[in-house]
Amino acid sequence: MADTLAxxxxxxxxxASGDATNExxxxxxxxxxxxxxxxxxxxxxxxxxxxxxxxxYTVSRTGARFYVSLFDAVxxxxxxxxEADKLGQMRTGAASGVATKYLAREDxxxxxxxxxxxxxxxxxxxxxxVRPIExxxxxxxxxxxxxxxxxxxAAELGLANIQPVETPEAAADTDIIITITSSRxxxxxxxxxxxxxxxxxxxxxxxxxxxxDDKAIQRANFIAVDSLDQARIESxxxxxxxxxxxxxxxxxxxxxxxxxxxxxxxxxxxxxxxFKSLGIAIExxxxxxxxxxxxxxxxxxxxx
Length: 304
Known about the structure:
Elements: H1 2-16, E1 20-30, E2 33-45, E3 48-60, E4 63-72, E5 78-83, H2 85-103, E6 110-114, H3 118-130, E7 135-139, H4 143-157, E8 162-164, H5 168-172, E9 176-179, E10 198-201, H6 214-219, E11 222-225, H7 228-234, H8 236-243, E12 252-254, H9 255-259, E13 273-276, H10 281-298
Parallel strand pairs: 6-7, 6-9, 7-8, 9-10, 10-13, 11-12, 11-13
Antiparallel strand pairs: 1-2, 2-3, 3-4, 4-5
Helix pairs in contact: 1-2, 1-10, 2-3, 2-10
């Protein structure tokens, strides 16, 4: 996670300086399956003069399949073809970790997690990597899932105080809130938020899904996304709020501006901050570069 965090943070800085370009996700459908494609380009990334990347994945009745093609931007050569389910999990968590690093209170010590699935693990790992977390509360619909998740993460992260809670309100009384669900209706209400809270809303990338309600958006003093272009077509929370006249797109800023120091996010400890993570291609390119470098060092994978 430390390597992925560093890579994603670096690519946001490059995006702010004009050295990284992102194309929003596109969808096509046939026979009940959906193909998603997203691409990005990065210059001067670590040891690479330039990288191009394409992420393509399908969602069907039989599950989801993820692949990243990583290209050398100088020669156009295909450097690697990577099965990218774990890669996507790690980069999604890292994006929330970077947002937490720059937007959450420095003294944030408690976390509330909504959702206990595959993606929740990297979300919590990333947040714990950037803040000295002392306690975690986990809520999800099925008691057995949240209990199992707590046991798993306690072992993986060495968390002594991680516990399942029976109501969604109980998980909201925390410094950092993570929503990583597939819910179509809000799982976090604005009235539950305490002053100074930071929210990572990372579960929905469809206009039909909402993880936080209108009140949470209204109470947020600073709102950030990884891509404004993508948010306009994928963020159900924001599109709904804009249509109701409760939010203007001018209030929504891109995370790259904060990471690069071009603007401040949190102004004081009592402010509420919100990061809406949609998952963008340059994050995949950054994570793929990490995977490719490690594979070369360890002589992993197959030469084609």
